């Protein structure tokens, strides 16, 4: 492997990390898994890196009866021992908790009028509030409505922001319903729909890479690109999330947002300005250009599957997971062929695949270029040579790899594939949650999904999901072995087009 990654990054703060204005983070569902395992630990890491605002506090809200002292203990238990020390004590002093009852308007009213003002006064946050919904998605509407009823309309004060975790609804109708409730209470400029995947360094780098280098953009079209493969493969199963996954399945869980957003970033036109609204405009246009999937010929575009027990029986199948129905037809894998009907991408298929319990964990975008027009080495080399592929690696080992052909050293005329490889290695200074929290504090909506983005992707996927769920019986090819590359039918999807998936 040829390595061309001799780089040195300037310190993070010289690359535009600014310390946000003082603010309070108010977490609904604060007793839950997300808050304890991801959200508050990310806030703590920001605290340790001195990236939090000068004035700051966390107010946890949930139904569980406990006081702030007990809540801090709960968070401390979720924090690695080596990180707990004098620094933790100072951080813990910023954390508060109050039990609430969403059904009782007086409960949330008391939070807004009695609990928050002294905390804000003390931290000097000047009324800057970030409401973070970390409850199960089914109660988002209820929580937003309760907040709306409890005090002055949040929309009236631009200093209010609301963060909402994916999934954004379960189909087009429910996402529209949720957006209506959300936009009754807040303005779109106050809404941060987060998918933490999109805050990965390489996802953000897609745009930098495309539009700050003159090398690739001229090639970024149907003339030079044969096809694009976007993969999000996991080795893990559904863990403890059977309740959620049985309702969701892979199309709602991964495609509606992650996969379509990765596709939009890869396919979009250059915006005139690197600003949240211009970037989101271009992403929306790319999504609008996706050709609707023909429901009567769905098998030509979509393959779904579900993991079965691994060949050595060391990993159990999806239907054997705790909380999963013994006859569940929920797909844990999908491969989808997408056409984008515009000048840039006419005739270039985008193949998307995502699944659980696959052979290797990887998220990547692979741009496969067309082969050279005339193969002058065919006699000396024999057979075809691999066309160039550019791989944007989102995880793990975030980086970029360009697969090229070079002469094998020696007397014989021989080609060999080599990789030009750039890796961020240990240089990713902010985790995805730290990044999105900071962006939200700073009011930068670039990484967050706008209402039209959610609406467009559901418009494309909802009919497909309905058609799948209405089918009687499962194809024989539905099950794949845990630890494999996925269902055989997914390989056939590309083979029909004379192509093949990159090996996992
Ligand atoms: N966990 C993750 O790793 C993860 C990753 C990505 C996205 N997310 C998303 O983040 C959100 C929160 O996830 P989570 O795993 O933390 O969920 P969770 O643990 O199931 O629930 C969070 C909290 O919500 C409260 N809650 C539960 N049912 C409620 C109800 N009917 N009404 C009001 N409050 C209720 C509970 O607190 P009380 O009973 O004390 O009120 C619970 O502790 C979800 O939308 C999830 O999809 C989670």
In short, what is this structure?
The protein is α/β, with parallel strands linked by helices and 504 residues long. It has helices at residues 33-48, 68-77, 86-92, 105-123, 140-150, 172-185, 201-212, 242-267, 276-288, 378-381, 432-442, 451-469, 488-495, and strands at residues 2-3, 23-28, 56-62, 95-99, 129-133, 160-165, 191-194, 225-233, 302-308, 333-338, 350-355, 362-369, 389-395, 399-407, 415-423, 479-481. The strands form 2 sheets. Strands 1-15-14-13-12-8-11-10-9-16 form a 10-stranded mixed sheet, with helices on both faces. Strands 4-3-2-5-6-7 form a 6-stranded parallel sheet, with helices on both faces.
Q: Can you describe this structure?
A:
By secondary structure, the chain is an alpha/beta fold. Residues 1-12 have low confidence and may be disordered. The protein has helices at residues 33-48, 68-77, 86-92, 105-123, 140-150, 172-185, 201-212, 242-267, 276-288, 378-381, 432-442, 451-469, 488-495; strands at residues 2-3, 23-28, 56-62, 95-99, 129-133, 160-165, 191-194, 225-233, 302-308, 333-338, 350-355, 362-369, 389-395, 399-407, 415-423, 479-481. The protein is built from 13 helices and 16 strands. The chain folds into two domains: 17-194, Rossmann fold (3-Layer(aba) Sandwich), CATH 3.40.50.720; 198-430 and 445-495, Dihydrodipicolinate Reductase, domain 2 (2-Layer Sandwich), CATH 3.30.360. Helix 5 (140-150) packs parallel to helix 6. The chain has a ten-stranded mixed β-sheet with strand order 1-15-14-13-12-8-11-10-9-16, with helices on both faces. The two termini are 19 Å apart. NADP nicotinamide-adenine-dinucleotide phosphate binds at residues 29, 31-35, 38, 62-64, 102, 134-137, 139, 165.
